[in-house]
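Quick one, T. Sequence first:
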Amino acid sequence: MRIRDDQERLFYEREAVARNWGKRELSRQYASSLYERLLLSTDKGKIQNIAKKGEIPDDLSFRVKDPYVLEFLGLHEQPEYSENDLESRIIDHLQEFLMEMGKGFTFVGRQVRFTFDEEHFRVDLVLYNRLLRCFVLIDLKTEKLKHQDLGQMQMYVNYYDRYERTTEENPTIGILLCSDKNDNMVELTLPEDTNIYASKYELYMPDKKLLQKKLKEWIAEETENEKL
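Structure tokens:
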């Protein structure tokens, strides 16, 4: 691939080998700006290491992305769609969805029901990551995320941590996939040590040049702050 940036090219080389990508999937991941999306979703300390030392974090592929790119669902052709439509399309394109999620993901079930205090609840999608050794719960929202949605996911995660995971497994991760969100509201609602994440999903390929510009500005800003 004709990628000028050495670190970006190395990242895609490593990922292609580790995840057994063919040419088509490698081209899609590059077009979806996987490198930029992962870096912009991770903490600033790791971005500083890349800027200063040229090091790519080993766990970068395990990071929750923001946004996730779901153009393969074909929903952008529909003016309106429901959460059930979104879920059904994901099931129809499960292999592509799991690859977009990252390394080590396996499918457990959809609309997985659990009962607590004689009330029934359903988790939209339940995945398991064999590398992280934990459940990953996904709630789908086709409208702007509300603080009540975060509270609901917190309950789901608490239930799985207390009643489903074993002592050998790691804490459950919750991901709310939404069409829109307010980052300040999410930060204020969730505790600092939370395992719950809110990420937007996009039905179109992102503007790669815009993400590259944003990443360069972020790295330059952090590098300048280091000098002060």
